[in-house]
């Protein structure tokens, strides 16, 4: 992949437009985070209860997801010191999100600043990593992947299309814009280097890790009563939910 082909994204009015979209995306990330953690979710243009109960199981799930994400950070292969690298932990955020729902998203996203601390590059850009991990790598797969079982071609293709292609593309654009916004890298360099790096990292690791984990984990997570859609269905049938 020729990294220079993305340089144009960091130039002129196109870059200025993306900076505006970056701020909008940050607001959307904060709003969806508050809404989901607060017990609501979007359905069309409406807000409806997401039926997540922050009981001991949900809190424990979020904590374990966060701990796993941080623990895997030292396995990262650094490509750009202080900025980016290849790490298996990066492919876990969508997996945790589609399996465990909001608790999985909380654990994956809120662990990002701690991952940066372990990786040695905690800074203002960590705010973008935190917000856009939530928005692109967690929330989008959570809302769009209906069946993460990999039991058929449709399930696999939908997961790959969203978690290995769409989410990494959006995430890479947002992170490149974040570095440009904080002037941590020249915009042309941020787009020319980071976009292909992040896309390869998240895309390739997802291609390998997703089926290796979801195929054996999905039936077990269901059997343990931790699959978020099953928990939501059970909560919806409870007379306590109105």
Tell me about this structure.
It contains nine helices and four strands. With 242 residues, it is mostly helical. The protein has one domain (3-235): Arp2/3 complex 21 kDa subunit ARPC3 (Orthogonal Bundle), CATH 1.10.1760. Strands 1-2 form a two-stranded antiparallel ribbon. The longest helix is centred in the last third of the chain and has 37 residues, at 187-223. The radius of gyration is 18 Å and the shape is globular.
Sheet/helix structural class: mainly alpha
Mean pLDDT across residues: 84
Counting DSSP E segments of at least 2 residues, the number of strands comes to 4
Determine Rg (CA atoms, Å): 18 Å
Span of the ends, CA to CA:
53 Å
Low-confidence stretches: none
- Please give the count of helices: 9
Task: Give the helix/strand layout.
Blueprint lengths: L11 H26 L2 E4 L2 E4 L6 H17 L4 E4 L3 E3 L5 H9 L1 H9 L1 H8 L5 H20 L8 H29 L5 H37 L4 H10 L5
Antiparallel strand pairs: 1-2, 3-4
Helix pairs in contact: 1-6, 1-7, 2-4, 2-5, 3-4, 3-6, 4-6, 6-7, 7-8
List keywords for this structure.
242 residues; mainly alpha; Arp2/3 complex 21 kDa subunit ARPC3; two-stranded antiparallel ribbon; two-stranded antiparallel sheet; 9 helices
């Amino acid at each position: 992949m020729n990294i220079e082909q993305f340089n144009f994204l960091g130039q002129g009015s196109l870059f200025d437009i993306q900076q505006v979209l970056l701020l909008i995306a940050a607001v959307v990330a904060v709003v969806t985070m508050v809404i989901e953690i607060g017990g609501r979710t979007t359905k069309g243009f409406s807000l409806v209860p997401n039926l997540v109960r922050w009981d001991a199981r949900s809190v424990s799930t979020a904590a374990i997801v966060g701990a796993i994400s941080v623990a895997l950070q030292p396995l990262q292969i650094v490509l750009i010191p202080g900025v980016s690298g290849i790490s298996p932990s990066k492919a876990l955020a969508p997996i945790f999100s589609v399996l465990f729902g909001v608790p999985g998203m909380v654990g994956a996203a809120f662990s990002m600043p701690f991952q940066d601390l372990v990786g040695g590059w905690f800074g203002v850009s960590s705010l973008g990593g935190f917000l856009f991990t939530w928005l692109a790598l967690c929330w989008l797969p959570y809302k769009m992947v209906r069946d993460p079982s990999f039991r058929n071609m449709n399930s696999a293709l939908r997961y790959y299309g969203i978690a290995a292609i769409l989410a990494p593309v959006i995430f890479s654009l947002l992170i490149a814009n974040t570095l440009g916004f904080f002037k941590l890298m020249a915009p042309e360099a941020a787009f020319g280097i980071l976009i292909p790096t992040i896309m390869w990292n998240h895309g390739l690791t997802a291609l390998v890790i997703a089926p290796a984990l979801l195929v054996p984990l999905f039936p077990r997570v269901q059997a343990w009563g931790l699959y978020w859609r099953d928990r939501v269905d059970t909560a919806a049938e409870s007379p306590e939910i109105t």
